[in-house]
Amino acid sequence: MESRPNAIIYWTLLAYKEWSFYIAASEKGLSYVGSQQKPFEEMRDWISRRFPESELVQDDEIMVPFLQELIEYLQGKLQVFSIPFDYRGTPFQLAVWKALCEIPYGQTWSYSDIATHIQKPAAVRAVGTAIGANPILITVPCHRVIGKNGTLTGYRGGLEMKTRLLNLESGKIAQEL
């Protein structure tokens, strides 16, 4: 009896204008969008924790549909993603990530807005933790979450990346911090 091969996670580097980050996908969909200008190891380590026993394979051709939509978004031409996702988390994390996808393009919600939306109004801190664990930056738009007082809060990709994404969505020219 032959042993079954490990699952394959495909990856590529998105390099478009000043944007540069790694992305990865399983056969089911986009699994990871990395932080701006971070090393390959950030993605590799994340994949090894979330998809144990998987093989990480660079395949630029398979990744084209994901690259196309992300680049269209970065060009300001795409507001809603149609690519499939394959994210793995707890039921609570999945509920938070689903709520993030319901924040309209160009708008922001607070952590308490998300907690209320998922019918867990007392879970604001847990919502923040789940948002911090979001594996698919940009496409699961955690950059649209701000503090209750309107201030920018933490972002895995860094506050500069968050600011640039919010400026892109508001139609402003991206300002460097």
TrEMBL record:
Protein EC: 2.1.1.63
Catalysis: reaction(s): a 4-O-methyl-thymidine in DNA + L-cysteinyl-[protein] = a thymidine in DNA + S-methyl-L-cysteinyl-[protein]; a 6-O-methyl-2'-deoxyguanosine in DNA + L-cysteinyl-[protein] = S-methyl-L-cysteinyl-[protein] + a 2'-deoxyguanosine in DNA
GO biological process, one term: methylation
Gene Ontology MF annotations: methylated-DNA-[protein]-cysteine S-methyltransferase activity
Record key words, sorted: DNA damage, DNA repair, Methyltransferase, Transferase
Pfam families linked: DNA_binding_1, Methyltransf_1N
Domain Methylguanine DNA methyltransferase ribonuclease-like: 9-87
Keyword Methyltransferase: yes
Gene3D superfamilies xrefs: Methylated DNA-protein cysteine methyltransferase domain (3.30.160.70), Winged helix-like DNA-binding domain superfamily/Winged helix DNA-binding domain (1.10.10.10)
Top-rank lineage group of the source organism: Bacteria
Residue ranges of domain Methylated-DNA-[protein]-cysteine S-methyltransferase DNA binding in the record: 91-170
PANTHER family given in the database record: METHYLATED-DNA--PROTEIN-CYSTEINE METHYLTRANSFERASE (PTHR10815), METHYLATED-DNA--PROTEIN-CYSTEINE METHYLTRANSFERASE, INDUCIBLE (PTHR10815:SF12)
NCBIfam families from the UniProt entry: ogt (TIGR00589)
Protein name: Methylated-DNA--protein-cysteine methyltransferase, inducible
